[in-house]
Amino acid sequence: GTAAHHDMQVTFYYARDANWNTNNLISTYEGDHSTLTYTWAHADLHQRQYGDYLPGILYDGSIDIAVRTQELRWASSGDAPLAWTLGVYNRQASRRDHSLIGATASASRQRNDAYALFGDLTLALPDPAWSLNAGLRFFSDDVTGASLTGATRSRIDARFQSWNPRVGLSWTPRADATVYASVAKGFRSGQLQPATSLLIAEAAGLELPNTVDPDRILTSEVGAKWLADEGRVLLEGAIYHSRWHDVPVRVPINDSFNGILNSEGADIFGAELGVTYSPVPALALQLETSWIDATYRSLQIGGATTVL
Known about the structure:
Blueprint: E1 14-30, E2 34-54, E3 57-76, E4 82-101, E5 104-124, E6 130-149, E7 152-174, E8 177-188, E9 191-192, H1 195-203, E10 211-212, E11 215-228, E12 233-245, E13 248-252, E14 258-262, E15 266-280, E16 283-296, E17 298-301, E18 304-307
């Protein structure tokens, strides 16, 4: 975790050890006209960081994160004109941070209790070449947390909620070709600033917010897929634009630590192109390329706004 100087020497050392465990379960029941799917997943991360924060100043810290998710999804099956999916999602997450820099200690904790209800419909229009897809997701996240950094105490006790729609239209002019367009919204909750970041920023004379605001994104996409050579060749292409509001960014405090700030957002333009060739059923060769132009609108650091 320590960067070397140009002469390949370091003036202090900093190390990181991490232990990461994941488990998951998927169970599916297939009925005559629908399918019921249940998924469960659990992940744990324990990370210890230790060494020198600066020459002669010792640092010792730990991060513990646990996440559990569950989802129950009920979806139609078959070739009916109306295809549907209904579901419920639950996520519970906790994080604890402890650090010691010299003789100064800091600690923080945060817990997220979130759930989502979602549905999706795909309707074949009177013209069989056209179909309409629409989805809606309601998301709610209760976030509680607290941090103690030197003489600074921070708390967060908030509920973040969002309605996230998606709509898409597809056109199949022939059995081996599809053209589609879609617009979708995404959302992510706010969070506490890590206690270690607040402590190190304070020592460096920098000002960081105690909490990070939620961010949201709106993405529109147009694409096409085409099967050629009797199904042995698949061509795919798409162009898209995303307007990402209040996107959190990591701001370096020193060579080893970062803080988190909300930016004014980003504009993202992109294009993707892919070719898949299957000379025989058991073999597939893929070639994919993409072009992305992503730009932050502006970034506020220490009370000053920089237009990017």
